[in-house]
Design a protein that fits this description.
Layout lengths: L10 E5 L4 H12 L7 H14 L3 E3 L2 E2 L2 E4 L6 E11 L9 E10 L5 H14 L1 H9 L3 H8 L3
Parallel strand pairs: 1-5, 3-6, 4-6
Antiparallel strand pairs: 2-3, 5-6
Helix pairs in contact: 1-2
């Protein structure tokens, strides 16, 4: 991956969530204020997207994504969960690796290219294993943003 996929500020190596809903709320809380959008708007957009179909991609990975009014640019956030949570994933497996993508409402599709790029990376078992085995957020940063 040749440019920064996710800012080190938005990489969390140890996140606790008890359910999919709790996880989506936690994501909204983490990214809303730094990017100048309302937590409620982020949560509602993520929940609406999940109603269309689960963003649980399989193999313990979820890639929640949505368009948000008022967002100035596409933003990303990565979380590794302490314990996997049920996420209604395509393979019925709980998730522990979360990669959030939020795009401006007026996005021209760049977020879809990013989504495809992230999906390809997370399909690789060795990459997922390295993320799960990374010692801390700094190690995750190296893995996620390696050239």
């Amino acid at each position: 991956m040749n440019d920064v996929l996710v800012s080190p500020t938005f990489i969390d190596a140890s996140v606790s969530a008890t359910s999919k809903r709790h996880l989506l709320l936690s994501l909204a809380q983490r990214v809303a204020a730094p990017y100048g959008v309302e937590e409620r708007d982020v949560l509602e957009a993520l929940q609406a997207r999940e109603q269309e179909g689960s963003t649980g991609a399989g193999n313990g990975v979820a890639i929640p994504h949505a368009k948000i009014a008022g967002l100035q640019r596409t933003v990303t956030y990565f979380a590794r969960l302490d314990e996997p949570v049920d996420y209604d994933s395509l393979d019925d497996q709980p998730v522990d690796l979360i990669f959030l993508i939020l795009a401006p409402e007026s996005s021209n599709g760049d977020h879809l290219k990013l989504l495809a790029r992230v999906s390809r990376a997370f399909k690789e078992a060795a990459f997922r294993d390295r993320l799960r085995g990374a010692e801390d957020a700094s190690a995750l940063d190296v893995l996620l943003n390696a050239d």
